[in-house]
Amino acid sequence: MQKLSSSEEKVMLVIWQTRGPITYIEVQTGVEKRFGDKWKGQTVCTFINRLKNKGYISTFKEGRFTHYEVLISIEDYRKMQLDEMIERLYQGNSAKMIEELSE
Length: 103
What we know:
By secondary structure, this protein is mostly helical. It folds into 2 domains: about 1-70, Orthogonal Bundle (Arc Repressor Mutant, subunit A), CATH 1.10.10.10; about 75-103, no CATH class. The protein is built from 5 helices and 2 strands. It has helices at about 5-20, 25-35, 40-55, 75-90, 95-100, and strands at about 55-60, 65-70. A two-stranded antiparallel ribbon has the order 1-2. It starts with 5 loop residues before the first helix and ends with a helix. The model has no long low-confidence stretch (mean pLDDT about 95).
């Protein structure tokens, strides 16, 4: 699983929250509502294409609209992020992390 930029992560959070197929206009509106970012349509399409190329989403056409669906769950993404953080900050020692968090 490839890392996401902060902007790509915002797009994915909106897509994950939707729990179903979503159009780029719904993504654009969702990012603005949730994060306050006012992106142009082309910017949203760029991030969506990056997510598709990284294997996070797939696309399908319905009428004249393209829809996007999740291929990697938010749970899998969270696990990857947590594993990476534990490796980077605790040299893979999750018990050490839990110990520090309990203090």
